Amino acid sequence: MSIASVFDVALVALILAIGASTILVRKAFAAVVMFVVYGLLLSIAWVRLHAVDVALTEAAIGGGMTGLLLLGAVARSRSVNVGGPWIGRPARLATCALCALVVAGLAIAMLHPPEVIPTLAPTVMESLPQSGLGNPVAGVLFVFRALDTLLEKVVLLLALLGVWSLAPDRAWGGMPGLHVYARSDPTLIFLAQLLPPVGIVFGIYMCWVGAKDPGGAFQGGTVLAAMWLLVIVAGLQKAPAIGRLWLRGLLVAGPVLFLAIGLAGWVFADAFLAYPAGYAKPLIVAVEAALTLSIAVALGMLAAGPPERAQQQ
Amino acid sequence: MNAATLFGLCGAALVGIGLYGLITNPEPLRKILAFNLLGGGVFLLFGVIARRAAVAGLGGDPVPQAMVITAIVVAFAATAMAIALVQRLGDETGRASISSDSSGTGDGEEKS
After folding, report:
1. Is residue A95 part of a domain?
2. pLDDT at B110 (0 to 100)
3. In this structure, are A72 and A142 located in the same domain?
4. Is the domain of A70 the same as that of A145?
5. Which domains does chain B have, with CATH numbers?
6. Cα distance between residue A253 and residue A243, in whole Å
7. CB-based contact B17 A16, cutoff 8 Å
8. Is A220 part of a structural domain of the chain?
9. Which of B20, B68, B102 is best to mutate for the A interface (most A CBs within 10 A)?
């Protein structure tokens, strides 16, 4: 066994142990912390599968952002009566058997891959130079499957609308209540002053480099959102009221620009979401820049939750 | 057994673990957590399929990889929505469990 395979076996064992403890541990807070660790370990697994773009997304959104959301939710639900009855032992054993069956089915599918594995990689590599991009994943996201990417942004906005619509009537248009910590301590304030300049530059870099190397609008946007949330959580800046015009403008700027360029494709490149020859890369970079801002604001507001306090005039 | 198959089995096991937590735990927040765990396993299976389709000097097929990136973002959006719903439910009813009242031993003092 080589060192790499020993590492893989250890990594898989660790992922499974952390995953199981996320489910089995009693306290919800401990489970969320386990989940964040699980997300980070999973992103290492993605690196081992040679998918660095996915690894960055998993670490940033799958582990970090989801973890932050869940931590906030757990902190809020402390006061609520937690710990309903668990289901009885026979039902639990039956569930166990059912889950084992599902695992066995998936494992058999994994152990017996088809003779000829279908792949679109050669087609992607053949057409990629026309777009001027160097990162095949970015090529798929913004050229070959641009509609998916556009609709995914719409899903983000729809989710945000859904979260906002859960606000009580009196708080509509007001400020989201982000309660992760009861009060901010000096260490947190220091970090919130120290990290954002570095983080903002890093987020912009990730967005820029995404055209050529692993990175991109999602990952860059998540870093920007994280910096924004850090400043809000530390109490240096208040979360903006959701009625603010600039906030709503930023939220839709990316998708609207994407849609406008997509519609212009009908006129200049004879297909929806097609780019005119020679202008593909500048257009994609422009869309990515606008999307990065929109994603950052959308993720930040999703994490901040529904508005709770009416806007102070 | 190569690395891709190993991670494939890991993904399959994670789906099972997540499914078990989703069914057995009565707390909505823990159900959301288990569902995300399950999702992580499914994504990993997808990644293994992408890795096996590696040709032309690439580490993997970029099409499934791009789809997984989209899926992670959509899963986050759905999680945010679910958490907001659970919190509103908690605010309205004062309960953090969705189990039925008849079997209630822990949260029986609330009448829905």
Report:
1. no
2. 39
3. no
4. no
5. 3-96 (1.10.287.3510)
6. 16
7. yes
8. yes
9. B20
From the list A208, A234, A217, A236, the residue with the least C-alpha distance to A297 is: A217
Query: What is the spatial distance between Cα A180 and Cα A166, in angstroms, rounded to a whole number?
Result: 19
Quote the pLDDT of residue A197.
Answer: 92
Give pLDDT, residue A125: 79
Q: How many domains does chain A have?
A: 2
Among B32, B23, B35, B18, residue whose Cα is nearest residue B83 = B32
CB contact under 8 A, A81 and B81: no
**Does the structure show a pLDDT above 60 at A219?**
yes
Cα-Cα-Cα-Cα dihedral sign, residues A231, A74, A46, B43: negative
Domain span at residue A213 reads 135-313
Residue A120 lies in a domain: no
Nearest to B38 by CA among A25, A105, A22: A22
Query: Mean per-residue pLDDT for A3-26?
Result: 91
Residues A183 and A283 in one domain: yes
Pairwise CA distance, residues A127 & A194, whole Å? 43
3-state secondary structure of A185: coil
Distance from CA of A158 to the nearest CA of B (A): 9
A29 CB-side CA count, 13 A: 6
Q: What pLDDT, on the 0 to 100 scale, is given for residue A270? A: 79
Give domain status of residue A108, yes or no. no
Note the pLDDT of residue A35.
Answer: 93
Mean of all residue pLDDT scores within chain A? 85
Q: Indicate if the pLDDT at residue A243 is higher than 90.
A: no
